[in-house]
Amino acid sequence: MTELEIPRELLPADGRFGSGPSKVRPDAVASLSAEAAGYLGTSHRQSTVREVVRRLREGLSHLWSLPDGYEVALGNGGTTAFWDAATFGLIEQRSQHLSFGEFSAKFVACVKAAPQLGDPEVITAEAGTHPEPRADQSVDAYALTHNETSTGVMMPVRRPRNTSGEPASGLVLVDATSAAGGLRVDPSEFDAYYFAPQKCFGSDGGLWLCALSPAAVERIERLGGGGERGRWAPHSLDLAIALENSRLDQTYNTPSLATLFLTALQVEWFNENGGIEFAAGRCDASAEILYGWAERSSFAVPFVAKPDERSHTVGTIDLAAGVDATHVAGILRRHGVVDTESYRKLGRNQLRIALFPAIDPADVEALTRCVDWIVERLA
Ligand SMILES: *Cc1c(COP(=O)(O)O)cnc(C)c1O
């Protein structure tokens, strides 16, 4: 069998469609390179690096118009480390979790294994949908996921309401790893909105960032702080220590300077072009192209049934039984169009395509034309 060669003019200008690590803008890399001699390899305790952290923290406050008293904290270890930190510093006794994919389930597993916490309340839903939180007096934290990256389901960030319509008293902790910077959010509806910058922020992994409400700050300071009043936590996972350092525009231990730089640049790129409306608008445009194409296609269909639950940052598209998605993704990969494979554990005949702000909607359009071209020739 001869190997298919996609005509060059059909290929996207940039072939990175992975859901994390994801496309890093070449302009941002060029800026890093231009500034490298005075920045990379310099102390994170000195003003050059601390200025980048300051720009990053302020830029995020500006991006979401965080109300007075909200703070941006950061630390090393990415979202996975933040989950562990939250079991010490944000969940007091017992949490409620919406579990509807690999990532939301992983936080549940952390909490279940934590001996300092009660058994969590877990509300599940089928892959491709999301459950709703329920106000519950017996929990002090609600764990939501703004965008479930493994299935391509997004859900609104909203405090659970009790029967009289009042917001529940527990903290609302939102895993926004693949949503932050790409989906709109109202800060009054969350207490901790946490993420890592290798998705919408077009940077590298290994860092966590979190927007915290005054109630979350109060809890972190009460539970943490090195053990005297609070409960014991490993120092590298102690959110009170992380917050103390963040206020000085530092991290507790040495961060990746390139990651900080690229993240700060992405936030400024958003803010200089119109803020969250600009960033989310690009994701909206890409989502319309992708789902519109799938709905018109004879061999592709959006995996998520309800249109308003289809993610605008990570699209999942099922292919008809006769079209092998792994084969299609493999042909794309040979042409430098990479990481369109579905989430491995979901086990579907599916393409998963990142729609993050850095990705040009025109490239999403080009990708759909390439898939059409391939499938026509495989038939
Ligand atoms: C990518 C992702 C994570 C994991 O992030 P790490 O930085 O690799 O720990 C967690 N949650 C969601 C929703 C994600 O998309």
Explain this structure to me?
The chain is an alpha/beta fold. The protein has helices at residues 26-39, 47-63, 78-89, 102-113, 214-223, 239-246, 257-272, 276-296, 325-334, 361-378; strands at 71-76, 95-99, 121-124, 141-145, 147-148, 153-154, 171-175, 192-195, 207-212, 300-302, 314-319, 350-354. The chain has 2 domains: 8-24 and 275-378, Aspartate Aminotransferase, domain 1, CATH 3.90.1150; 27-272, Aspartate Aminotransferase, domain 2. It has 10 helices and 12 strands. The chain has a 7-stranded mixed beta sheet, sandwiched between helices. It has a 3-stranded antiparallel beta sheet with strand order 10-11-12. Strands 5-6 form a two-stranded antiparallel sheet. Strand 2 (95-99), helix 4 and strand 3 (121-124) form a beta-alpha-beta unit. It starts with 25 loop residues before the first helix and ends with a helix. The model has no long low-confidence stretch (mean pLDDT 97). Pyridoxal-5'-phosphate is lined by residues 20, 78-80, 103, 145, 149, 175, 177-178, 196, 205.
Residues in helices, as a percent range: 25-40%
Under CATH, the homologous superfamily of the largest domain reads Type I PLP-dependent aspartate aminotransferase-like (Major domain)
Small molecules bound: pyridoxal-5'-phosphate
Largest sheet report: 7 strands, mixed
The averaged pLDDT comes out at 97
State the end-to-end distance. 14 Å
Structurally, how many domains make up the residues? 2
- Output the number of helix runs: 10
**CATH class of the largest domain, anyone?**
Alpha Beta
